[in-house]
Structures are given as C-alpha cells and as structure tokens.
Amino acid sequence: MPENTVNTEFKPQFTAYEGNLDGTLLQKEEGPKNFYGMSQDDLKKFLKGLGKEQFRAQQIFKWVYEERITDFEQMSNLSKKFREELKGLIDFSLPAVVSHLKSIDGTQKFLFDMGDGNTVEAVLIPGGEDRLTLCISSEVGCNMACKFCFTGKQKLKRRLKASEIVGQFMQVHDRLQADGKRISNIVFMGMGEPLDNPDAVFKTVEVLHDPWGINMSRRKITVSTSGLVPEMWRIIESKCRLAVSLNGSNDEIRSQVMPINKRYNIKMLLDACREYAEKTGDKVTFEYVMLKGVTDQLEHARELHKLTRSIPCKINIIPFNEHPGSGFERPSDDQIEKFQNELIRLGSHVLLRRTMGRDIFAACGQLTSEFANKPRTMDISNSKIGSIYSKADLKNEKLKAAELTNS
Ligand code: SAH
Ligand code: SF4
Question: If you measure from the C-alpha of residue 1 to the centroid of ligand 2, how many angstroms do you get, rounded to a whole number?
Fold first, then answer.
C-alpha cells in the first residue's frame, strides 16, 4: 500500500506475520500440554475430550492459581484415578529464572531461560503505594527494527508461546507472594512486538484475567505496539489498555526511526487509535522517545500536539536510554523540560517517564537476550524479592551497578 493511502478498513485483511520466519508454521506442541498456556475454556475442552465434567476445570484453576498447588496428587477433590490420568497429560513447568538483578531504585530484572537456548527478560517496576508493574516480553528479539531500540537490533528469533508469557508472570508472582506482595499491573513493553504474536499475547490476557485464576483486571493490562495497524482491533476486543509508540511527529521522521511506518503511516495509525478511543471510552497512551537532534525540537512538540489533540490521550515522554552502538543520544534535561513545557502550554496531557533500572540495563529499550555488552550488575537470583537491601543500603552509592557476580 502506498505510504499516503488511508486504510479505512480497520479490521485486518491478513495477519502481518504468520508462523516462523523460515516459512514453517509454528510447531504443534507434542507431549504433555503446559497448563499455563491454557485458558479455562481450553481446559474445559481438554477435559471434555477425556469425558470429564466441565466444573473440574474451575477446581483445577483454583488449585493452581489460588493455592499454588501444581501436584495433582494434592488436588484432593479429584478422584485418585483422575489425578493419575492427568499426571502424564499436563505439566506445570515454568521458564527458569537464570539471573535476577536489582537496581538501586528498586527495579528488578529477571532473565528467563526458555529451554531451547533462547532467553528473554522481564522487569518489575515499583510505583507509588502498592503499585508493582511487570513489564513482560512477547518475543525473542523483534523484527520491527526500530533504530533506537536494543531489542530491535536482534532479529526475531521466535515468538513466545502463551505458556512462556504467563510463565514469566508466575515466576515473579510466586516470589512476590512469599513477601505478601502482588503484581498490580502488566505492560507488554518488554522484548518484542506484542501484535506480531497476538494469539499468544491475548491468550495470556485471557488466562491472567480469569476470575478463578489470577483475576487481573483487563484495565490493568497495557499492550504497547509500534503500530501494526491490522492487528490493533484485537486490543479493542481484549478490553486492555492501548499504548502506541509514536516516536516521530511526522511521517518522514517516524519512517526514519521506525521502519513499520513505511507500511502503516501516521494517518493509518491515528485512525486506529481514534477508533480505539471511541469504542472503549479509554484514553490512548502515546509513547514518545526523545532522541537528541532527531525528535526533541520544539517544532516537533508542536507537530505532536497537532497530531494527537483530537484523540483522547496522554503523551508519555521517554528520554532515550542509551545502549552500545545505538548512534543516538539522550537530549539534555533542559531540552527535555522545554519540550515537555511546550506540550503543556499547548494543552496536551503529558507525563515524563522517569528512567528506572538504568544501572541494571532494564530501562525501556535496553532489553536483550544477548549477553554481550551487558553492564556489571548484582545478581540476587536466590533471594526473595525486596528482602536483599535495607534502606541504608539503597542510599549507599557504592551499590550502584557495583558488585559483580554475573560476568
Ligand atoms: N514493541 C512494543 C513494545 C516494546 S518497546 C513497542 O514498540 O511499543 C517499549 C517502549 O520502549 C516503546 O515505546 C519504545 O518506543 C521504547 N523504547 C525502545 N527503545 C528505547 C530506548 N532506547 N530508549 C527509550 N525508549 C525506548
Ligand atoms: Fe520492537 Fe518495540 Fe523495539 Fe520497535 S521499539 S524494535 S517494535 S521492541
């Protein structure tokens, strides 16, 4: 489609990327099914195939998600024969946590081994009060190739299965539970483009939303997209929150830093955003990465305001987080403030995102599954969350990206 053609048909005519990159379709699972990739409806269907009653699915969900019992032997309201039968059919394995790092600001980063040589990262970000946001990954690498993003430097290696995305959540959930804490929000802002792997992403939403399971409100789940317009209707349907990485105030700049814009330009993207706001009554969050000399000028702020003013939205300014060999720079604090003030003056609802987890390389756009170029950090893999540092420790500057256990 030529760059300036408006796509009035919002529902997809095709899926952007189907199957694996080598042209083969996604592999069918063999052997026992992983429980965490199944919604309650999937489990019901599965049990129906075994000639079992549907209400058993609810019972099993309650055992697993509420009691955290994953040994069928202990599910006392199931018959002994049934428990035996289920043992070989369903497994509860989770991606292993191979590294767990904690930043001076309380942000924590988890590196997961996906069992096939691939690794992904998730980041837990503390906010005010009881807010604990988990930023999860949907893919190993990313094919969108945004020029400023560390993940985008790695080509897509593979899409994660729903069980592997839910698995990231459950690993962190279990560690928090030991401290009496809970994840309050989920953002799909880790590695990968969620709408490039929509089946697994929205299956994850279904699983984590289940009232007999984690019972996470859909409104506490944000899906961030670089703008795969034909798949954006699925965010409306899922009733999750929409975040859009805009990152350019006109097509020329956006195409330069986000190649996806050559396929789905700003007009097409904003039409989809408008439709989201109309249908859900929710605001869109626009993410805007500030790159020195590229997207940080006051004229860009004015263009950005003009583009977004007719859409119920807020703008989240993200100062560029540096990574090796990116070729971009973070603007000065002064320039960031001027940019923000210009947007405020024009009447935009704008927030400046505080950079979190910089010392452990966990900030936006710094995630990778490759170990090269990683900074020195502290590994707390075997600790319980939140219990390793005292307040006095946190004040101690020496802890900043200090002790090395992970090189
Ligand atoms: N693929 C999705 C979600 C993951 S990226 C998307 O692009 O929306 C999450 C956010 O990090 C995006 O808004 C992206 O623009 C931003 N980002 C990527 N690299 C960055 C960097 N180096 N510094 C600051 N933000 C970055
Ligand atoms: Fe992929 Fe998002 Fe990074 Fe772009 S910003 S390369 S879409 S992860």
Answer: 22
**Which pTM was predicted?**
0.86
| Active site annotation includes 121 | yes
- 259 Cβ neighbours under 8 A, 6+ residues apart: 144, 145, 146
- pLDDT per residue, tens digit, the chain (407 aa), is 333 333 333 333 233 333 344 433 344 456 899 999 999 999 999 999 999 999 999 999 999 999 999 999 999 999 999 999 999 999 999 999 999 999 998 999 999 999 999 999 999 999 987 899 999 999 999 999 999 999 998 899 999 999 999 999 999 999 999 889 999 999 999 999 999 999 999 999 999 999 999 999 999 999 999 999 999 999 999 999 999 999 999 999 999 999 999 999 999 999 999 999 999 999 999 999 999 999 999 999 999 999 999 999 999 999 999 888 899 999 999 999 999 999 999 999 999 987 777 777 776 666 766 543 344 344 444 333 332 222 333 233 222 222 222 22
**CB neighbours (10 Å) of residue 39?**
21
Of the candidates 316, 302, 327, 321, which has an alpha carbon nearest to the alpha carbon of residue 247?
Answer: 316
Helix (H) or strand (E) holding 102: strand 96-102
The conformational region for residue 316 under phi > 0 = left, psi -120 to 50 = alpha, else beta, is beta
Nearby residues of 51 by Cβ (< 8 Å), 6 or more positions away? none
Report the C-alpha gap between 122 and 340 in whole angstroms: 29
Q: Specify the ligand 1 atom closest to the Cα of 224.
A: 8
The token pair at 118 is: 């691939």
Nearest atom, ligand 2, residue 151 CA: 3
The answer to whether the CB of 190 falls within 8 A of the CB of 138 is yes
- Burial (CB count <10 Å: 0-12, 13-18, 19+), residue 24: exposed
Q: What are phi and psi of 243, to 5 degrees?
A: -120, 140
Tokens representing 79 are 């018959």
Closest by CA position to 282, among listed 352, 208, 343, 221: 221
Dihedrals φ, ψ of 228, to 5°? -80, 80
Of the residues 135, 146, 149, 364, which is catalytic?
364
**Contact between 306 and 343 (Cβ < 8 Å):** no
Q: Which of 140, 91, 151 is nearest to 114 (CA)?
A: 140
364 given a catalytic annotation = yes
Nearest to 318 by CA among 343, 342, 289, 297: 289
Helix, coil or strand: residue 11: coil
